[in-house]
Amino acid sequence: FKGASGGVIPWVKLFNDTAIAVDQLGVRNGSVAIWLDAWHKDLPEFLQLKTNNGDDRKKAHDVFPGLCYPDLFWKLAENDIDSNWYMMCPHEIRLIKGYSLEDSYGEEWEKRYYECVEDERISKRVMTVKEIVRLIIKSAAETGTPFAFYRDTVNKMNPNKHKGMIYSSNLCTEIMQNMSAMDIQKSEITDENGDTIIVERTKPGDFVVCNLSSVVLGNVDVKNDEELGYVVETQIRAMDNVIDLNYYSVPFAEVTNKKYRAIGLGTSGYHHMLANNLIHWTEDEHKEFADDVYERINYHAIKASMTISKEKGRYSCFEGSDWD
User: Fold this and answer.
1) CA–CA separation, 140 vs 125, rounded Å?
2) What is the pLDDT of residues 306-321, one digit of tens each?
3) Worst-scoring range by mean pLDDT, 25-34, 69-78, 274-283?
4) Which residues form the Ribonucleotide reductase large subunit C-terminal domain (predicted)?
5) Catalytic residue among 142, 174, 288, 319
6) DSSP assignment of 256-294, as one string?
7) Phi first, then psi: what are they for 226, rounded to 5°?
8) What letter does residue 148 receive in the DSSP assignment?
9) Annotated catalytic residue within 29, 84, 108, 172
10) Is 170 a catalytic residue?
11) Is the four-CA dihedral 104, 109, 112, 118 of positive or negative sign?
């Protein structure tokens, strides 16, 4: 056990202290989201990171905890809430089973999860689904966290699943891209003086970065499809240009950004848009109106991407993707 940690909480506290240490000279604190699998052994303590009661040495009030849920958890919550939920150590699973449980999703994940549950060599922490849901609700009511990331759904919808897997998200939970670790390779060379020099080469993983922009719906006549299309297509082109023109303080971010050319088009001013169009929040026409607006935004965004790809060429991972 030499050099081993007793869990994730001490490391979360380090991230917490780092975030508040880098405060732009008192102007703005850093912000960090910490994501944990809902089957992780430290889940109960993780859900109490920001609550105001309990041992303060196990608190991290300045980070934003988030949970990565498998579909199975909420299926049990809906259909068999008194059933047991088994929490395990991912490192122990890797040593005993030879695979990482977090490296799968959907049916494959469920199969592996129950394999681990039935393996007596793997130590487990057991609570009912109901008890865990209560902890989640308590934390959400007191702190607004944990954030939620539905890994099965995200990976099933991932257009680049042929190139990797999505494990978690960012602080605002709107960026979802393939993630992988960097590989640092070391070698030794001897110079003309006979001195040994250690050379490190870094193979960049998928270091997620995404360019974001929002359509201010209250300032657009969304019923005018020509106007909406012009705004959306302009923003898509602007974000794509940022990929090429941006300053990258981290070189690995540039590699990933140019590999996938990921962009994120959001919206703001939603209620302003409803008021402009005399749409009542509780009426059925509200749902139909929203479906129509976002369907057309999606159409114009994809159309703009197609136009740009004809001009600049397709992104390097296009072949084999859902766009292919």
Assistant:
1) 22
2) 999 999 999 999 999 9
3) 25-34
4) 2-323
5) 174
6) HHHHH--EEEEEE-HHHHHHHTT--TTSHHHHHHHHHHH
7) -65, -45
8) E
9) 172
10) yes
11) positive
| DSSP assignments along 41-88, one per residue | TTHHHHTTSS-SSS-GGG--TTSEEEEEE-HHHHHHHHH-TTSEEEEB
> Structure tokens of 305?
């991407």
Query: What three-state secondary structure class fits 210?
Result: coil
Judge whether residue 2 has pLDDT over 70.
no
Helix 71-79 vs helix 129-143: crossing angle, to nearest 10: 110
Residue matched to tokens 């993983």: 205
Backbone phi and psi for residue 64, each to the nearest 5 degrees, phi listed first = -120, 100
Kindly state the helix (H) or strand (E) to which residue 300 belongs, with its residue range: helix 284-312
Catalytic residue among 170, 178, 211, 257: 170
Q: From CA 154, how far away is CA 105, in angstroms rounded? A: 10
172 is catalytic: yes
**Both tokens assigned to 256:** 């990933």
Whether the CA torsion 293, 297, 298, 299 is positive or negative: it is positive
Burial of 206 (0-12, 13-18, 19+ CB in 10 A): buried
Cβ pair 194, 247 in contact under 8 A: no
Average pLDDT score, the chain: 95
Helix (H, G, I), strand (E, B) or coil at 93: helix
**Distance of CA 90 to CAs 96, 103, 143, 185, Å?**
10, 11, 27, 25
Tokens of 265: 């088009």
Coil, strand or helix: which one is 119? coil
Per the DSSP assignment, residues forming a β-bridge with 304 are none
pLDDT band, residue 26 (cuts 50/70/90): confident
pTM: predicted TM-score of the whole model, two decimal places: 0.91
Residue type for position 258: K
**Residue 112 token pair:** 């592996």
What six digits make up the tokens of 130? 């109901």
